[in-house]
Write a structure and sequence with these properties.
This protein is an alpha/beta fold and 266 residues long. The chain is built from nine helices and 15 strands.
């Protein structure tokens, strides 16, 4: 295990780590500024594939956090990066929003309903029975089945919403085909993020609030893992798992380095 002082690059989850219910977590803004001042490459990660980095940057700015869009890495970007490496210039039938469709277009993919190389399921708030039926038939006909992230539900003011993982389970039941899931807890998402900023696992730290995605993926990617207690995890949750993060902190404020105290003595 490396010492925290040896970490040269940072990956951090967004919701539950930097923001909570659209409000910045105390210390988050100062930590981002500290990384900028120290010239440490970093990326803010999210499994949400609905929004583009530009959308998320604007959302964070409205919450009081300054994160440029090139410092944001989503499961949609990771999915597009992965598919472009597998089949450059390929084609896809997509169920999802601007986050995944924009990422795939920018990666050189063609969107089609005619014999696509891939069926890609991302997050959306408008799942259509017709589109799901089309996805099922294309997968049965031979298209490869890809899912941006495994989250079964998402939050809303009125309670849980069905999310990508739930729709993927429906398609799996209908086709008998399991998807390849790119987002957390697949360490593939962390590896592609590190490639983007030129980081290496031996000197990169990962901050998250979930044991079942952030921490397990960080461990499997060989990163220094830090769990913060500002999201969904508490000690009872941590105790459920057979693995442990390298550090458990109350919040990202505990990562702030104190300024040296100047002495008045001569």
């Amino acid at each position: 295990m490396i010492d925290r002082g040896e970490i040269e690059c940072w990956l951090t989850d967004m919701d539950g780590v930097l923001v909570h219910e659209n409000h910045p977590v105390p210390g988050a803004s100062a930590l981002l500024q500290q990384w900028r001042d120290q010239g440490k490459p970093y990326l803010v990660l999210t499994n949400n594939s609905i929004f583009t980095p530009r959308d998320l940057s604007a959302r964070l700015k409205a919450s009081g956090l300054d994160v440029p869009e090139d410092r944001i890495w989503t499961s949609a970007l990771a999915t597009a990066d992965f598919l472009a490496s597998q089949m450059p210039g390929g084609s896809a039938f997509v169920i999802g929003e601007a986050g995944i469709t924009t990422a795939l277009h920018e990666a050189g993919f063609i969107m089609t309903e005619t014999s696509p190389d891939y069926v890609v399921i991302g997050e959306t708030r408008n799942y259509s029975f017709e589109a799901i039926t089309k996805a099922i038939r294309l997968i049965v006909a031979g298209s490869r089945f890809i899912v941006t992230n495994p989250d079964a539900t998402g939050p809303s003011a009125d309670g849980p919403l069905p999310a990508t993982g739930a729709v993927a389970a429906l398609i799996t039941k209908a086709t008998g085909r399991e998807p390849y899931v790119v987002g957390k807890p697949n360490p593939m998402m962390f590896r592609s993020a590190m490639n983007k900023i030129g980081a290496h696992s031996e000197n990169t730290g990962m901050i998250g609030d979930r044991m079942d995605t952030d921490i397990i993926a960080g461990i499997e990617a060989g990163l220094h893992t830090i769990l913060v207690l500002t999201g969904i995890s508490d000690q009872a949750e941590i105790d459920k798992y057979p693995f442990r993060p390298d550090e458990i902190l109350d919040s990202v404020a505990d990562l702030l380095e104190s300024e040296p105290i100047e002495s008045d003595e001569i």
